Amino acid sequence: MTIDYGIERDLRAIPAEKELLQLKLLRAVGKATGENVPQRTIAVMLGVAQPEVSRILKKLRLNPAARDRSPREVMLEHAAGRISHEQMMNELGSWDYTFGHIAPDDPIGESYVRGSWDQIERAGELLTDDDRRALFEATAQGRAQANAL
User: Fold this and answer.
1) What are 52-99's pLDDT values in tens digits?
2) Strand partners, 112
3) Is the pLDDT of residue 34 over 80?
4) Looking at 8-127, which runs of residues are DSSP E strands?
5) Same domain as 125, residue 145
6) In terms of domains, do 47 and 85 share one?
7) Which domain, by its residues, includes 110?
């Protein structure tokens, strides 16, 4: 069965929109608590129970990087139709990536510390093979330097 491209695009945008909305929620709750807004007040504004606000804050504590823009967020914005393919590739191509490595305090080398480049490697259907090749070429020097360390 062939699905109309517009319908397919709309359907594929939904998971991206959901993930972007989750990021927005984490950041908004984090910002509100940073401004000393009580959890009960946040809960009322969100239409949830106060324990849900506490769970949201726990997620943010466990993943403080969610406060910052990431390559995954850029890819999600494209998948959701918020930015063009060209905008996505321009931003990802000029991103100041960090590269994963074994934790320095791990004597047996079992602890991997992820870098922002890992989001490109684990992008799945958010990137095409051509996108990956272009980004691989654009970041060749940075990856070589990271591997030399």
Assistant:
1) 999 999 999 998 888 999 999 999 999 999 999 999 999 999 999 988
2) 102
3) yes
4) 101-102, 112-113
5) yes
6) no
7) 69-149
Q: Detail the DSSP E strand segments found in 34-102.
A: 101-102
pTM above 0.85, yes or no: no
Q: Into how many domains does the chain fold?
A: 2
CB atoms within 10 A of CB 108: 6
Distance between CA atoms of 65 and 96, rounded to whole angstroms?
15
- Residue ending a domain, among 66, 98, 116, is 66
Are 48 and 29 in contact, with CB atoms under 8 Å apart?
no
CA atoms within a 13 Å half-sphere pointing along the CA-CB vector of 34: 9
| 20 and 44, same domain (yes or no) | yes
Chain CA centroid to CA 64, Å: 12
* Dihedral, 79, 80, 82, 85 alpha carbons, nearest 10: 10
Query: Between the CA of residue 24 and those of 21, 27, 117, 118, 124, what are the distances in Å?
Result: 5, 5, 22, 22, 22
Could you say which of 16, 51, 66 is where a domain stops? 66
**Are residues 60 and 83 located together in one domain of the fold?**
no
